[in-house]
Amino acid sequence: MKKKRNKRGWFRKHKTLTIVFIIIFIIILIILFSLLLASLPSINDVNRTKCQDGTYDGRCSKNKPSFCLNETLIKKASVCSCPYDHKVDGESCVKIQRCYDGTVFNECSSKKPDFCDNGILQPDASRCGCGFRKTAFGDRCYYTHSLKAYLDPDLSCDSVQTGTNYIRNSPVYNPYNQPVANVINLLCITKCSAEHYIFISAKCGYQNTVKCLCGEWAGD
User: Does residue 197 register a pLDDT over 80?
Assistant: First the structure.
């Protein structure tokens, strides 16, 4: 004959586990009951007046920043906040203005050195800086590398103020891959690639040598 299982013995053996399951079950019931209560209107809400869009008096409407006050919808952004892509302006909300790339008005773009100037992206390296391995010249950024250069024999470092920029700080466009000659007495030994710039901003250095830069415009 088969022995009957002793249910009481099983519960005694697994007493701790049984208690844990009971507690978890009670917690789940409490959570479900709380969610049910939250979804139902309160006793006060049943008798509370509403605005035309169904918002209860004294509450924010789903259409931000509207607030229901005495059955009238008013703008109250300080309490109800603003919808996405809008910002608080007093108690109203105004759309955040952006340039075509998403940059907020009067802020720097993620694409340096662009600056959103009232809806127009303008290069502004002095304000927004340049990215990695780029050099700012004026408002624009350039990929650059150094080139050796020397002074015209008619001009030596002794005849200029040592350690100062005696050459103007501006790029000279060199579309035909020609060496820069007779440009404020500066000659670059190495030619730049076609469609690159020669930068003639330099200082006097060792043995009358100066540096010029060959770079590619990193704009647009």
Answer: no
SS3 content of the chain, % helix, strand, coil (to 5): 25, 30, 45
**Distance from C-alpha of 62 to C-alpha of 84, rounded to nearest angstrom:** 13
Report the DSSP beta bridge partners of residue 197.
173, 215
Asked whether the beta carbons of 145 and 198 are under 8 A apart, the reply is no
d(CA 120, CA 117): 5
Residue with tokens 């990929």: 143
Q: Where are the beta strands (DSSP E) in the chain?
A: 66-69, 72-75, 86-89, 92-95, 114-117, 120-123, 134-137, 140-151, 171-174, 186-188, 196-199, 209-217
CA–CA separation, 106 vs 123, rounded Å?
12
Q: Report the first-to-last Cα separation within the chain, whole angstroms.
A: 91
Residue showing tokens 């100066």: 210
What is d(CA 181, CA 128) in angstroms, rounded to the nearest whole number? 34
Asked if residue 9 has pLDDT above 50, the reply is yes
pLDDT for 36: 82
The contacts of residue 103 (CB under 8 Å, 6+ apart) are 109, 110, 114, 116, 121
Question: Chain-centre distance of CA 25, in angstroms?
Answer: 47
- The pLDDT tens digits for 102-121 are 999 999 999 989 999 999 99
Q: How far apart are CA 121 and CA 115, in angstroms?
A: 5
